[in-house]
Structures are given as C-alpha cells and as structure tokens.
Amino acid sequence: MPYFFDTxxxxxxxxxNKNYDRFLDEEIITSSLNLGELFYAMVRETDxxxxxxxxxxxxxxxxxxxxxxxxxxxKFRLKNKxxxxxxxxxxxxxxxxxxxxxxxxxxKGFEGISNVEYVK
Length: 120
Description:
This protein is α/β, with parallel strands linked by helices. 49% of the residues lie in helices and 13% in strands. Strands 3-2-1-4-5 form a five-stranded parallel beta sheet. It starts with a strand and ends with a strand.
C-alpha cells in the first residue's frame, strides 16, 4: 500500500528512526512542496550536497498540487486552525485523501485525524 510521506516522515526515515522501518519498502509518494521543505531541513541540519542527494533520489516520487487541492487544503487548515497545521502539511494531507492513500506523518497535529498513519 503506498503512503503519502510528509516531510516529517521523510526526515525521520533519513535519520534512521526505527519506528519508520516498516515503511522502508513502501512506495514513496510526496509533493514537490514537501521536497522543498526537506531540502531546507537537510541544508540546515547537514549540508547542501546531502540535500541535493535526497532531492535527486525522491524527485520522481514528488507531484505538484493542483489548484483544487490547494483550495481544499486551505479549507481543511481553517477547519483545524487550533491544531496549527502548516499549509504544506495540509496540502499533502488533501493530496493523499484525494488519491485514496494514507498520509504518513509524525506531526502531533495530525494524530487522531482520519486517513492518517501517525508514527512517532
């Protein structure tokens, strides 16, 4: 079963978080926005060479968000504004839901939300 890997999940996998080991053989699906977040995090915590390496590895698995997805994501974010979810996370969540796949994250704000595979 494929999952939509949000940036949190991608970073935890790269860091070697054992709680994500069961997803290592799964097809990775993410968005170009999540890759942007990943690039930022990798440059900040490692270096640009490492960030480019991961961008290259994951590029074929990243999709762009259509305008209707963005609109639904903003509605979802407004509905859940007390959780302080990021725009990019909300876009990923809606992309996953529309495509019938689970949203994989360790972001506490998504814990207990339907269609989410929450992993610490």
